[in-house]
Write a structure and sequence with these properties.
The chain is α+β, with helices and mostly antiparallel strands and 106 residues long. Helices cover 35% and strands 43% of the residues. A four-stranded antiparallel β-sheet has the order 2-3-1-4. β2 (34-46) and β3 (49-62) form a beta hairpin. The longest helix is centred in the middle third of the chain and has 14 residues, at 64-77. The radius of gyration is 15 Å and the shape is elongated. The protein starts with a strand and ends with a helix.
């Protein structure tokens, strides 16, 4: 079965509203073709203190050609002082890859 290269961007956000706003703006700029927002219970150390909080994971799908621009955009507009913008390369079915490329056309 033919496959397509897709980039999945991973960015935890402080609220659902922030994640949805980032997704909406990325979509309107055609830097991503699709986004999911998933609730998450996060644990981490920040400035020497253990933190336990609800975060919302923005999962954004884009093409390899748009990935760097989308990562830069998220980093610039994210409210965290030190945002994580992770990137995974995945293989999707060919039909999805074709749809994604079309969704990102101007």
């Amino acid at each position: 079965m033919p496959k397509a290269s897709v980039i999945l961007l991973y960015a935890p956000c402080p609220s659902r509203a922030v994640a949805l706003t980032l997704a909406r703006q990325l979509l309107s700029q055609r830097l991503i073709g699709c986004a999911n927002v998933i609730a998450s219970d996060s644990r981490y150390v920040w400035k020497g203190k253990r933190v336990s909080q609800r975060e919302f994971i923005l999962l954004a799908k884009t093409t390899p050609a748009k990935a760097a621009a989308a990562r830069r955009w998220i980093t610039r507009h994210h409210p965290y002082q030190v945002p994580l913008v992770g990137q995974f390369s995945i293989q999707a079915n060919a039909a999805y890859g074709q749809w994604l490329r079309q969704a990102l056309l101007p």
